[in-house]
């Protein structure tokens, strides 16, 4: 990844014990972090199987965040104008807490008006505007008539309450789109693929963005198993497949099966789609619950032999995991297993 004229082939913060720092502001780990989130969003929103809608909430206007530009023209972020850093920093520090309060107030008002639960948030993503002020993107279900009614009512209460909690305008019109389309829209911000968005380094390293830049509801990840951790482990398996490193160290067969399912979900052209997911997870849980005999290390160098045994044991778990989720009609199989 090129950054500031430097092409990073590995993490500049790496050590012997930690090959990557996994920081989103790192010139090597940051883009990889964004690509992982792109995969997580795409798989989970698409797996929901319903139409969704996005709701954008902007920061306050010039009455709260005055412009720092002194030119005599109509100020705009597209013209290179920025807001004053001190008020922006104060607002950015309070922003996550104020968003929680705004969300709770809008949900309560929606439930009182409709008499049933407000829409559940599928994901939440913060994005910096051109003027330097973060704004928020929400994704909510927008498929059935009750879902559309709840989403429109929730949006209306957000717009009514936003100034009271330190926010600006709220998107007016909601339209149904596919989950994969919403994921692509959010990924454009993460990866900076359009001219309207800042570069990936500018977006993910902005100091005014909250620490929790993205959030995805566990209601989706519990079904797909696609999380940031399992995606990173799947990338590790890919590297092992190509012979760049040993297979990952597994905590048990259950973890290996979960990663095998995720690997097949995000790389279906390479490993084939997963099958018998529930049966494989049940079998893995039963396997992990069965006591295993301890290895006899009395005749060998303990540290070296333990490393060899662990390496072979992890390879065997990898083989079992990919065999349990294998589609018989798929001709290829994981070579490293």
End-to-end separation in angstroms reads: 30 Å
Largest sheet: 4 strands, antiparallel
Shape type: globular
Helix-residue proportion: 40-55%
Strand content: 5-15%
What's the helix and strand layout?
Elements lengths: L1 E2 L2 E2 L21 H19 L4 E6 L27 H30 L8 E6 L5 E8 L3 H17 L17 H13 L8 H5 L9 E3 L1 H7 L3 H14 L11 H14 L1 H4 L5 H13 L12 H23 L13
Helix pairs in contact: 1-4, 2-3, 7-8, 8-10, 8-11
Q: How would you describe this structure to a colleague?
A:
This protein has 337 residues and is α+β, with helices and mostly antiparallel strands. It has two domains: 36-69 and 81-224, no CATH class; 228-324, no CATH class. Helix content is 47%, strand content 8%. The chain has helices spanning 29-47, 85-114, 145-161, 179-191, 200-204, 218-224, 228-241, 253-266, 268-271, 277-289, 302-324, and strands at residues 2-3, 6-7, 52-57, 123-128, 134-141, 214-216. The strands form two sheets. A four-stranded antiparallel β-sheet has the order 3-5-4-6. Strands 1-2 form a two-stranded antiparallel ribbon. The longest helix is centred in the first third of the chain and has 30 residues, at 85-114.
Question: What's a quick, concise take on this entry?
Answer:
This protein has 337 residues and is an alpha+beta fold. It has 2 domains: 36-69 and 81-224, no CATH class; 228-324, no CATH class.
């Amino acid at each position: 990844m090129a950054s500031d004229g430097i092409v990073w082939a590995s993490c500049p913060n790496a050590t012997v014990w930690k090959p990557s720092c996994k920081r989103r502001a790192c010139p090597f780990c940051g883009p990889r972090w964004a690509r992982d989130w792109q995969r997580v969003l795409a798989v989970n929103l698409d797996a929901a199987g319903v139409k969704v809608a996005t709701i954008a909430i902007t920061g306050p206007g010039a009455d709260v965040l005055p412009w720092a530009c002194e030119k005599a023209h109509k100020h705009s972020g597209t013209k290179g104008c920025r807001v004053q850093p001190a008020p922006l920093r104060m607002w950015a520090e309070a922003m996550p807490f104020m968003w929680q309060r705004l969300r709770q107030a809008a949900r309560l008002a929606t439930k009182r008006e409709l008499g049933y639960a407000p829409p559940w948030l599928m994901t939440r993503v913060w994005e910096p505007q051109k003027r330097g002020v973060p704004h928020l993107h929400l994704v909510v279900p927008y498929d059935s008539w009750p879902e559309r009614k709840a989403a429109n009512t929730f949006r209306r209460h957000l717009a009514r309450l936003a100034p009271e909690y330190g926010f600006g305008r709220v998107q007016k019109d909601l339209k149904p789109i596919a989950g994969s389309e919403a994921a692509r829209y959010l990924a454009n911000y993460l990866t900076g693929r359009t001219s309207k968005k800042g570069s990936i380094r500018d977006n993910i390293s902005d100091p005014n963005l909250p620490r929790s830049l993205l959030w995805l509801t566990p209601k989706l990840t519990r079904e797909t198993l696609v999380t940031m951790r399992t995606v990173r482990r799947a990338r590790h398996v890919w590297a092992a497949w190509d012979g760049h490193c040993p297979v990952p160290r597994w905590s048990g067969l259950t973890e290996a099966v979960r990663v095998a399912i995720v690997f097949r979900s995000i790389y279906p052209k390479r490993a084939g789609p997963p099958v018998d997911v529930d049966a494989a997870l049940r079998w893995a849980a039963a396997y992990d619950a069965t006591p295993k005999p301890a290895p006899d290390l009395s005749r060998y160098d303990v540290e070296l032999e333990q490393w060899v045994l662990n390496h072979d044991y992890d390879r065997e778990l990898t083989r079992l995991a990919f065999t349990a989720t294998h589609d018989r009609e798929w001709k290829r199989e994981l070579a490293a297993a």
